Amino acid sequence: MDLFWLEYHDLPEGVGFGLHTPKHFLTLAVCALVSVLLCLWFQKLSWKKQEKALKILPLLMLAGNLLRDVYLLIVGYMSIAYLPLHLCSSSIFAYLLYAFLPEEIPEKVKQKEHLTEPDGSEKQKARCHRLSAFRTALGEVSFVLLMPGSVTALIFPDWTAYPLFNFMCLHSFFWHTLIACYPMLLLISGRIHPTIKHLWYPFLYLAIITPPIALFDYKEDCNYLFVHWPVQGTPLESLCNLMGSYWRVGYAALVFVVILVIYLVIELARFLVRSLKKAAGQR
Questions:
Q1: What is the pLDDT of residues 186-199, one digit of tens each?
Q2: Which of 3, 42, 84, 87 has the most CB atoms lying inside 10 A of its own CB?
Q3: pTM beyond 0.70
Q4: Are 153 and 263 in the same domain?
């Protein structure tokens, strides 16, 4: 407990859990278990209750972020380095936007749960349809971009100097786990159906948020989105060692490859499912 409430600058040296150590892998296993349990619980809910959960979860993520900021203010270490400008932090606002946009309920769900669409004019219904389409696109971006970003943060955390039983450390692991899990809930509930035809979705998202954040990094000497300098102990450090000052080109290529691989895995899984269904039907 002597170390639980200490911020990084007040910690003695050598108390961190270390990157890719048994403690780190054990914590990742716990995070994976929490994610599985959350998905199993979510699947058992009705469509309406799922919608409520999808609103509550990003609010909890936002509350968790604010709680961390209050803690940092109390201990006197709140700074420009803790602004919500990283990819994981931006996820909260993307999830909040997704959660509170209108949703078009699939017909089979309406019939199963006896749900009805709210009354409205044709103009209102058309607007609702457009917003729902934007909501679905945002959900797909969450799955192919924001979720991998959070998983990467868990695999290559930049808070290894903290001991595991520390507020900042536990907060970071739990918070990133929730961020990574949210898009999975959208996928398993059938709210999103990622397709490689939408490969441009995540890159449009990055094209919108990266330039202003990169400019902020340059002006304030910060490293949001990790575009100012490579983080030690991550693949970005290896890219920098390999490519020198051109490491950002490698960074962009790595992001493209990761997103492409995710889409290809989804398409392969879809092809296999269709093939199995077709084979079962022929029997």
A1: 999 999 999 999 99
A2: 87
A3: yes
A4: no
